[in-house]
Amino acid sequence: GAAIMAACSQAPGQPKVSKSDILSAEVALSSAGAAAFLGEPIDREKLASLPGLQAALEERGRALRSRIAQQMKDPTSVIWGELWTVDYVHVCGEVNAKNSFGAYTGSQTFLSDDGVSARLPGNPLWKAEDLAHCTGGPRRLILPADPMPG
After folding, report:
1. Which contiguous run of DSSP H or E holds residue 75?
2. Residue range 79-122, pLDDT digits in tens
3. Which residue of 3, 58, 98, 112 is 20 to 30 Å from 10, comparing CA positions?
4. Chain centroid to CA 53: how far?
């Protein structure tokens, strides 16, 4: 709805992205995720060429940030680092939030392999190889970091 409409309003000089472009990119991202889960290769060049890809990634990123914040002890304290992808399937990012003592815990890298849920180090589902999905190639920025407070 509103997120798709917001994504359609492009900066001046940028090509217009339609709702159907964004939906097509979302379907392609979901298909690539399923292929990756099955151990099949991801066609990164094909994904990179989709006109709605950036808008679809941004929409996923905003939804992911919202779900991660809800899992924090103090969701209002969350400071976001960049969100990025290396392979278009896995979304990586950095988050810093307050613990139950009211102190910031330090920036942590998280990984989402489905665009819906995320794992942070310390989570029982976190695997040693998770970080490789965030570092194994050039980063494509999805969402910038929050401005530094002060």
Report:
1. none
2. 999 999 999 989 999 999 888 898 998 998 999 988 888 888 77
3. 112
4. 12
Query: How would DSSP label each residue in 121-133?
Result: TTSTT--GGGGHH
- CB neighbour list of residue 81: distance below 8 Å, 6 or more residues apart: 93, 94, 95, 96, 107, 145, 146
Q: Do residues 96 and 148 make contact, with C-beta atoms less than 8 angstroms apart?
A: no
What the block records as the tokens of 22 is 């964004």
89: closest CA among 25, 36, 138, 128?
36
Task: Return the residue matching tokens 């819906």.
Answer: 116
pLDDT digits 0-9 by tens, 110-145:
999 888 888 887 788 888 788 888 888 899 999 999
Cβ neighbours for 143, distance < 8 A, ≥ 6 positions apart: 58, 61, 62, 65, 80, 82, 83, 93
Distance CA 87, CA 70 (A): 26
Residue in the structure block whose two tokens are 């001046």: 12
